[in-house]
Amino acid sequence: MATDDMPTPALEAAFELRVSTGSLLDVGRLATGGIRKVRTLAGGSFEGHSISARVVAGSETHLQRQDGVTVVELVCLLEAEGEAPIRLIGTGFGSGWDDASDAPQPAYMSVAFEAATGSPHEWLATRVFVAERGAKSDLTSIHLVL
Amino acid sequence: MKLELALELRISLGERMHIKVAEDYTRGAVLIEGGTFEGAGIKGQIISGSGGDFPMVRADGSGRFESQYLLRTDDGAVILKRSSGVRHASPEVVAKLLAQEPVDPHSYYMRMTPRFEAPAGKYDWLNRTLFVGAGRRNPTGSVFRFWKVV
Fold it and tell me: Which is nearest to A5 in space by CA: B142, B148, B18?
């Protein structure tokens, strides 16, 4: 299929998010299907593209579906020195937490940001991002979709 | 991470409506008349009247959009497609888009992250795959291409 009639997206490394998590909260098997588990975020860092911020709040939730896929939702509030907070919302697919080691498993997510109008980081809300986390890693690499 | 081209959708658009929710917030509604889609191992029609595209347009013309409609493969599987994304362009380009004039698709940023719900079986890879997409808006329709994030 010819693809030069419209833009072809590319990925550009943009940010590195590292989070430390709190204890596991097991909501259990849901009446609407799947098993829900939640971890609050205890802290972390967000670095890249003219920003250095810390993770001040957030959680990562998993819905383990019957088809074996785990739906991942990661929400963090980021705060850089002297600037308005930025909200990061990641949603995607993974394999849940490793039962033996309690470590995070690989995940792919799409990422959206909410940033205040007039903030130097306002542009974040006007672009689409995707993210990847490796096995047993606290690092999520976030790429800008060009 | 890299991108692999997976799917192209060609959509014809029907009635357009606008809901002026607030001074700086208008919800558009563009109904899907029909269309086709095709990719490696998958091909079919977009089910007429099964949904639409619902952009949230800011006063400067930028905004987010959401869409939802159904696909039917040539072998009869019905698949729900949902997507959210952003469009960002200069005010001049936005004015042309809103007036449904032809616009160079390279002159604006329109990217989305579609999701699918497919029945268990040969198409269930759609249910566990992250996609990114790009769009081109024509006066009477849209073309979308979706890439797998692998």
Answer: B142
